[in-house]
Amino acid sequence: MVTAEPITIRPVKRTIDAVGTLNGFEEIVVSAKAEGRILRILHDVSDRVSPGELLVEMDPTDLQLAVEQAKSNVQVELSKLGLSEPADIYFDLARVPTVILAREKRELAKLKMERIQNLAAREATTHEAVDNAESEFRMATAEFENQMLMAKSGLAMIEARQAALAIARQQLADTSIRTPTPQRASPDNMEAAPYVVTKRSIAEGSFVRVGDELCRLVIDGTLKLRVAVPERHSTEILVGQPVDVFTAATTTPCKGVVTVIHPSVDTGTRTFQVEIQVANDSPALRPGSFAKAVIEVREDPEARTVPLSAMVRYAGVIKLFLIENGRATEVQFTPGIQTSEWVEIAGPVLPRDCQVVTSGQFNLATGTLVTIRETGPKGDAAATAEAGKPHHEKTSAPQHQ
Q: InterPro entries of this UniProt entry (predicted)?
């Protein structure tokens, strides 16, 4: 006597398991842009800060003096050209006093030369006087051109001094270190203070140089989970697929979505990277935490399953027995998803209306006559209710942090 049940058709969600490390949506290293001594630290580790908020103040004394010196250098160059303020691009160089003086001397030398040439035409002067007048005119012309070049050079020097002043002012402004303004905002959970301070590398009174690390900030309203998935699943993972994320600190899964699939496969591990964005609604989710991702790749609405008791393992062979025309038929099969109550038949494909032996099969062989013992209606009702629930098939990926 044996018991038997029909194959059950039930929906099964196909999933892929992978593990990785949670990272902030953006992780920023704040470094010094100016050299100096730390005057004040306004925020410490775990503080939440908004974009543009003051983090650190450096002693500005030296750079304030540098700004004043740069201003004086600009005024020196302006005074050389007789200006009180920097000129615009349409400034007329002929208005510069030295150029005006040179131009007047040239005009005077020209008039003198013309008078002497007129006298020479009437033979009322000597050739030496003509030569001297012409020479004086050429010298005055060369002086005028030289003064024009000097004026252009003076304007260029003013621009250089102005640039030096702008650099000094920027360095002075850089003594106040503020949080950056993110240009690529986190898609979810953006609050007034999206940054959290995760590390402080300085103390008040310490001296820092350009490029030294001051602190680290993380946007943790949305986290990124990077996992390694075996290359055999490269055609199954798609952008936009839903993901359940588990951590050691959470009892319920957090919802995520696949956002980035790396185009190349690591030749050492034969895996490819998948990036998952996770909305950080729970304070238990922290950057740096170890997490497990269950990626839902598709749903199979008609998976064939049998009771777990129908599966027989013997000498490395997994099999079950079908009842055909009152006789047992041994079938070796590949199990798919397995629960505490049933197991999926991944292959071969069995008829939808066949029955499988659920007890007494250890004394059976192919061709053995069988007698089916009736089961109670209660067991049948429970099996029917269970068949209507969707289940998950999980495919594990190598663990890479």
A: Beta-barrel_RND_2
Last residue of a domain, one of 125, 148, 173: 173
Lowest mean pLDDT of 51-65, 163-177, 328-342, name the range: 328-342
- Is 226 part of a structural domain of the chain? no
User: How open is the CA angle 209-213-214, to the nearest 5 degrees?
Assistant: 95
pLDDT at position 186 over 60: no
- Whether residue 99 is contained in a domain is answered as yes
Percent of the chain exceeding pLDDT 70 equals 90
Query: How many domains does one find in the chain?
Result: 2
Q: Range of 78's domain?
A: 61-173
CATH number for the domain spanning 386: value is 2.40.420.20
